[in-house]
Amino acid sequence: MAKKISLCMIVKNEGAALGRCLNSVFGIVDEIIVVDTGSTDSTCKIARQYGAVIHHFLWNDNFSDARNASLALAQGDWILFLDADEELSSDSRKILTRLIQNNTAEGYFVKIVNYLGKEGWIESVPDLVFRLFRNKKDYHFRGAIHEQIADVILEKNPRACYQIAEDFVIIHHGYLDEVITEKDKKHRNLMLIEKELEQNPTNRLLQYHYGVELFRAERYAEAAGVLIQSATDIDPNTIYFPKLIRYIVIAQQSSGQLQEALNTANLGLKFFPNYADLYYYTGLILFDLKHYSQAQNAFLQALSMPEQPPQYASFGGVRGFRSYYYLAQIAEIFLDEEEALKYYLYSLRDNTRFTHALEHLVRILKPAKEPLYTMECLEKVCDFCTSEANLLMGDIYFRYGAYGLALHYLDQVEDGFPASSDIKLRKGICLIQERRFFESLRLLEDFPLESPEYPIAAVNRLFCFWIQNKSQKVRTLWQALHNLGLAQDTENVISLFLTYSEESAPSSNLVLGPEGMLLLLDIVQRLVALQEIKRAMYFLQVLHPNALTEYCMKVAGIFINYSEESRAIPFLQTAIEANPSVEAHFQLAEIYYHLGRHSEAEQHYKHALRLDPDTPRCYVRLIELYTAWRQTILNEALEKYPDNKIFKELSEEVASSHEATD
């Protein structure tokens, strides 16, 4: 006789999701029982369209009571329970029919794939849940929240046998950011669990769920304490124990208890030596502690782990792009750019949507300095065949000030992608930077006065005319912008186009707020990219020295980015005088090193190390510097004393060491 399946659900205002759920099971379940706890939208109407039996239930802050109301109505031999924000995978329909033919299983743990994150960055995390069991009158859910029935079935039937059906897959959308925010799940769950814990303060499973909810609410120290308490004397074979260990580690890490987190991870690996997540988080903690060699080993261990079982609920990418990314970061810290590029590439190949790796790849290749080389390198390893990919590359190159490359990729977007005003605006800016002024003006003049982008487009038209020394058109546009009633900082910046003079030095008394400085520095960057250095310096010289000091590192970065390192020196010196930092000393040392001013470079590398002794890149550079210095001195000595035995031996020693390195 064919076995029948009852789908049991509890719902409230699930009109947006319910159809997707019911459509995934329609035709394979024999009845649909929907317990509604007070919907005011289209939920019940949608349920009726699928032939559901609807029971209205007065909500009493108890999920088990609502679940048990659905069980009381179920007539099938088996119970499948789902939430409205879940659905069966397409392959699971046939598998469900096979599972219920098993005469030995009383119920099944099945695989659930949780989607986390938000649009544009969604991750999947697998887990095991108990969702399919035989329908018997004395089987009832227990617990006001995170309701359970697996333990109850065993209490009622000690001989009950459970099986794991990993090929039966439920897809869960309810952890997506917009769903959690819309339903205020965090606040609701905390309130219900706290109420339940008052009645059952020693319930380990309830404590675990409470700790998880505290973690999601970013109350990390409290979460760690509760989770540790829930782990006390727990059976290591408990199905959620691996996740519990991981949650303790990341709660301790997030609350700054780094050594405690390391200890917990090491303990967890004794129980679960193949748990990739524990190696990965060990790597993260060691990375934060600047124990780079140990961190590197941990990430490599994570990568070497086998496929993770569902009960580990392993985060996507710990055996791939995430670990590769941090291996690349470590390589960068040691100035090994070739190794860093390799790992960033591995990371990107493992997850093409992981744009952090792509951004770092681009940065290392220095697109503003070496545009053609950058494009050739990336096009050898990346596929930019879609409009979305071209738009992404255009956006990245634009932010890095590689305007020619940005224009190249933005031009590819229009074939298969709606041309937004933002794309048009950026293309207009890039055309100015390529000195294709006529084409730029055609785009920028296409923004009507009522358009939100009109002021930005008008400022860029003004900039375009100013570069061409068309003073009358500059004045006309300035007046039009002035009549719009711009913010005072914006007005002050664009007024500088009128007061610029090649003959006279500007007065240094302008003070701008953050928005004004952002606009001014953008203009400076674009002028440096155009090799209009004198004009760029004018915009910097009009600032009051005190107003500029805070931004000296950014200004220096602009000059460095466009191979104007010597001009960055005074700005770095000012930054060091105002607020000595590792980065300022290191950047200044790098410039001196490349200019062959080794004594000054050595001084600033050492200053950086005094500020932070855990700066490997400074040691790398000092070793290179001393090696080069030694070779220079040795060459001078040999030139003066070519027959000296000591100098000859030293020269042979250096030569052999170079051969060994090669």
From TrEMBL:
Transmembrane segments: none
Keyword annotations: Repeat, TPR repeat, Transferase
A Pfam family annotated for this UniProt entry: TPR_2
Transferase is among the record's keywords: yes
Domain Glycosyltransferase 2-like: 6-128
Name of the protein this chain belongs to: Glycosyl transferase
Start-end of each TPR repeat: 276-309, 582-615
Record-linked SMART domains: TPR (SM00028)
GO molecular function: transferase activity
InterPro entries on file: Glyco_trans_2-like, Nucleotide-diphossugar_trans, TPR-like_helical_dom_sf, TPR_2, TPR_rpt
Lineage: Bacteria, Bacillati, Bacillota, Clostridia, Eubacteriales
